[in-house]
Amino acid sequence: MKRIIGMMMVALCLFCAAAVPASAEEAPGQAPPAVSQPAVPGPAAAPAPAVPVTQKTLDDLKSSLQVGIDTAWVLFTAFLVFFMNLGFAMVESGLCRAKNTVNILAKNFIVFAIASVSFWFIGWGLMFGNGSPFMGLEGLFFAGGADNSPAVGEAYKGVYAAINWTGVPLWAKFFFQLVFAGTAATIVSGAVAERIKFHAFIIFSFILVGIMYPITGHWIWGGGFLASIGMFDFAGSTVVHSVGGWAALAGVLLLGSRTGKYRADGSVNPIFGHSMSLVTLGGLVLWFGWFGFNPGSTMGVGDGSAIAHIAVTTNTAAAMAILSSTLVSWLIQKKPDLSMIVNGALAGLVAITAPCAFVSVGSSAIIGLIAGVLVVLAVLMFDKLRIDDPVGALSVHLVNGIFGTLAVGLFAQDKITGTATGNGLLFGGGFKLLAAQAAGVVSVGVFTFVVALLVWYLVKAFMGLRVSTEEEITGLDLGEHGTKAYPDFQGFLTK
Amino acid sequence: MKRIIGMMMVALCLFCAAAVPASAEEAPGQAPPAVSQPAVPGPAAAPAPAVPVTQKTLDDLKSSLQVGIDTAWVLFTAFLVFFMNLGFAMVESGLCRAKNTVNILAKNFIVFAIASVSFWFIGWGLMFGNGSPFMGLEGLFFAGGADNSPAVGEAYKGVYAAINWTGVPLWAKFFFQLVFAGTAATIVSGAVAERIKFHAFIIFSFILVGIMYPITGHWIWGGGFLASIGMFDFAGSTVVHSVGGWAALAGVLLLGSRTGKYRADGSVNPIFGHSMSLVTLGGLVLWFGWFGFNPGSTMGVGDGSAIAHIAVTTNTAAAMAILSSTLVSWLIQKKPDLSMIVNGALAGLVAITAPCAFVSVGSSAIIGLIAGVLVVLAVLMFDKLRIDDPVGALSVHLVNGIFGTLAVGLFAQDKITGTATGNGLLFGGGFKLLAAQAAGVVSVGVFTFVVALLVWYLVKAFMGLRVSTEEEITGLDLGEHGTKAYPDFQGFLTK
Amino acid sequence: MKRIIGMMMVALCLFCAAAVPASAEEAPGQAPPAVSQPAVPGPAAAPAPAVPVTQKTLDDLKSSLQVGIDTAWVLFTAFLVFFMNLGFAMVESGLCRAKNTVNILAKNFIVFAIASVSFWFIGWGLMFGNGSPFMGLEGLFFAGGADNSPAVGEAYKGVYAAINWTGVPLWAKFFFQLVFAGTAATIVSGAVAERIKFHAFIIFSFILVGIMYPITGHWIWGGGFLASIGMFDFAGSTVVHSVGGWAALAGVLLLGSRTGKYRADGSVNPIFGHSMSLVTLGGLVLWFGWFGFNPGSTMGVGDGSAIAHIAVTTNTAAAMAILSSTLVSWLIQKKPDLSMIVNGALAGLVAITAPCAFVSVGSSAIIGLIAGVLVVLAVLMFDKLRIDDPVGALSVHLVNGIFGTLAVGLFAQDKITGTATGNGLLFGGGFKLLAAQAAGVVSVGVFTFVVALLVWYLVKAFMGLRVSTEEEITGLDLGEHGTKAYPDFQGFLTK
């Protein structure tokens, strides 16, 4: 343990040493206006001479206002996505047992810190740096490459050209992408809960956010080969959610199921979560945060119709998925199961993430309807396969991440809000778009699953992956953290 | 049960079939600009020739920027209002017993899904469609009528003329109004808690949001007869809160009180909530969300002074109501009661919702002060009347919804932030405004209460309203959902 | 008790009497445009004649749009800071025992109401009114002085000149500053928890927010003597956090430690919090709210690069502080302690609050790294000194508030985002800036600590400060409020 901590300490110090000079690259060639002395004249400003203004002046004005507005929008929605960390923490801890709560909360709290450091260190550069169709190669470290954002399009000069379509400053782009990267890591947390060693999860998260996520992200959002073949993933059903899901699946397979979950006779011993209040709280926080995730992915408010459309498709899919998951759960389990209702909402949200900007509101309803059915069936299926996922992360993020990506190929209509995607299969576009989407699903899935398996394997070999059975029974709170989540309440440790 | 589920399944499929073609109506005659290729030139764009620009060009520029800004504001505040669902869920579950928690959370989670579907299906059209003074008649289904938003005023061409004063796209208007409609349904949830059947609540919510709420909403916000006589309800003390309150009162009367609440000797057996942490959490989330509810109802940032004024009146009323409810509770109950403090805040917020844009900050303080007193007295009164409202929803939303609406007639000052309301009684305007407000209170109250009574009655007749006494004693979590909220914690089921 | 309540009642009535006329001062000389009839022409408006426009017209347009955008930004970020009240409430109640939960929640809920009233009554005027270098003297009451905001700079005419650099309406400035003032009072709450009388805390909070906080705030943000000597505190490491910390320290010293915390033999008896779920929830809400606290302190979006930069420095410091506090806690306590991880995040956020706009992202990482170490050592140190701070508020807000303020003098680089601060010691600026920062730390610290000691002493003398030992052992929930937080769960009252 001490050795690992020592290594991490050294790594941290190296970061910092490297980071300080990076500050010199900030705002290249720009003298930012004084924060405390805005140049905006007040209503009663001294009258200016009546000189006619030119189109150039007007364009400059629009540009200067637009940068401010777009930056505010990008940051506001990024904050909402950041807030999803709370949602994940609450859903996961609520769906697990009281004796593992501290461990789960600690994982969820530290994972965004890990993501913040590793995405800054290397992830951003690998994902958005100019380079090959397979990864970024320029401006790799500390988001420190040349960049004259908020310049856009032809006017952009720098090494992060793939994201030059949004007219916001570099750090706004970075922060928005960071909160997405953080989401991928939190997805893993839920699936491996209640049995993974604390530091094993930390190491894996660092590699996932720093290396794996940015590489496949580059393929789609960084101008890589999947972008080239016409694959579309508006806000990340594949880039974020299925990547998190594949990484989680690899971990679950290597970890094995929780002690006592599957009986020798093949039957399933349900393990109930310790607080449905936390689960519901988390579910609503995630839904709230998704209004940053999807509408925010416009990365600007230049097209108000687009962001309003996306807000409505996002919400409609969630609502319909809740209804269908409730009904299916009611039919199969005889009573409406709250955890299925909450996971239904999340399934609908994951499924609409890729197509939200490319499909009609009516189509979003159908996508949500299907997602809600899929998630209930998937939960049952994974239990049949004895793949133990305490929170249903695979059913929500992997299964519906795949479905949502394919749904673009089925339901897209050319020019719903902006980008011309071509029509999907159900709107007369044939299999072209669907094939590109499927290629994306398969290539990202194979890469992430294989690499994740390898990384998990190495972590297992070098420091161990799973806590002892004794610790698992006592609870990871005592074992990993030497404490309890609810010390004033008695009698839950024996379970 | 199966029959109901089957019916709902069929209804869902019909929605979807109808919904897909609706997509063709989107953005009529508009080719939205590409999301991923914004037309905004960067700071270093190629120089344009120095041609003088005209007023027309300038107006177009302003318009294009304003639409983006206003849309961002409307969506941002709508997200805050959406987040109030979490507040309601936490306040209600916290104020009820642990054994009914899952049921309460499930109701609160699904109710916004129900609202999303029914308001999209028919509610929006009934509320904002052009039609008679009593309801909308055009563009009824799926928000699918002709509409050239964000055009405003004279330039607007479409069937939703009553809301043509805000320059945002149709879906932004729809989404903002949807989150308000959802609020009305969640209000009902609290009053009928701990004894209503899950599906009875779902059916009622669907009808409330799809039919009842939009009709009375049309009278005030949809250009109906109450708008014509000069009644003002800025953000919905009547449109949202008292409507929810009246619908809840009808339900409570038909349901009866919880078993054991009122003893045979006439005394009250207080039933305590199971988690004051959740109550406080919910209260603060609601206060936070109200900053979307009230300031957001400007539906644009064209008048910065107005939204800042509204934020301050909203907050001041809440603060003063907390102080007065704390003091009154301290005096009457001898100790400051936390549930009264939280309900005090909500009472102040409900009361200031109608007048927030029409009264001074000083007046908002007095309105809050009165609201805080009213809510404590109302809670005691309803208990005297043996009307059992587990969370105080009637005292908060009905009593203070009425008071807030009348407060416009008392405290309004002409042109505080925009709309000329005329002066209220206390500012020399006589009884004219107060009379219009009272007419609104009475007509909305009578309609909603009578129709709600009828709907509740039909639900009761056809599928039953109340769970069995046995189930009520065991808890609705086991009865309705077959599960427990806190399975790791023992010993609370016997209460 | 009755006498106090009576006095408060009278005070409330006086407020209101004074408040009503204050409304006449609103929006001096302005006829705000109608909220419901925006002047913005729609895309299809009637064509305007092709008259060339002048620079004056253009400036007016920019100004009018900028006011709306900036107001939306200021309010949005203010709402996030308001939301921090939830974070503080959850962290504090979670880190304390179940038997004191209602009391802690009630304190945290009412404290913002108190702050809202006292800052409106007198605090705003003392802080931002024109006056001496030591306090505001004009426009003292009810934010009622002359003011033509959103006019800025030379065009500004009014008595709140120190905050004339931001082009937003007066009430937007007021509300933004109010939520900051409220934060200072909530900091105190945590340190004095589990033993202070409810009304003693209320009285102190009123004086802190109404008198003490605004006076020292005037020195730095109100154009006072610390501003004059070139001290910089961008978002309030000193103005807000260390002021709250000094006031708390004075209270803790007069209150003494909780019964049973320190044993006679000098050893420490750790008292565990009752819910780590609430602690983590609160920590993430605070982190989320800090994105309002720091980026919002630009009070406008005129410089998009600045707000993006500030968002990233804020997040980076939090992330690095989490990593360093985790590691230090792991090394010292042998296991990673969740309460240290959460307090680590808060420590990093407090420390970066002053320098967030003045340092590079690399420097923010180092500042965070140090803050995370400091907070763990400080918690241990205060326990060594037998200064009993149940939630670590002193370690987070006082120690890191001081460190963050000094960090400006060490790490500042001239013109990172706007204001020219000059370089700090580590960037070749010598001791000049560091000396000014130290002067600020010392003068604010001495004043606040001495006055707070006096106020706490008077409260103690006139109404008592600490509950009886019997009440402390039974719990303040029963003693102060006559209720329990979790009545359905048994067995926690004996602890």
Secondary-structure map:
The structure is a homotrimer of 495-residue chains.
Chain A lengths: L1 H21 L32 H41 L5 H28 L41 H22 L6 H24 L3 H4 L8 H19 L20 H18 L10 H30 L4 H16 L7 H24 L8 H19 L20 H32 L5 H6 L1 H6 L14
Largest interface: A-C, 102 and 107 residues
Number of beta strands of chain A: 0
Form type of chain A? globular
Overall structural class of chain A, as computed from helix and strand content, comes to mainly alpha
What's the story with the biggest beta sheet of chain A?
none
Radius of gyration based on Cα positions of chain A: 23 Å
Measured as a percent range, the helix fraction of chain A is: 55-70%
Mean pLDDT of chain A: 90
Oligomer: homotrimer
Structural features, described:
- With 495 residues, chain A is mainly α.
- Chain A is globular.
- Chain A is built from 15 helices and no strands.
- Chains A and C meet through helix 1, helix 2, helix 3 and helix 4 of A and helix 2, helix 8, helix 9, helix 10 and helix 11 of C.
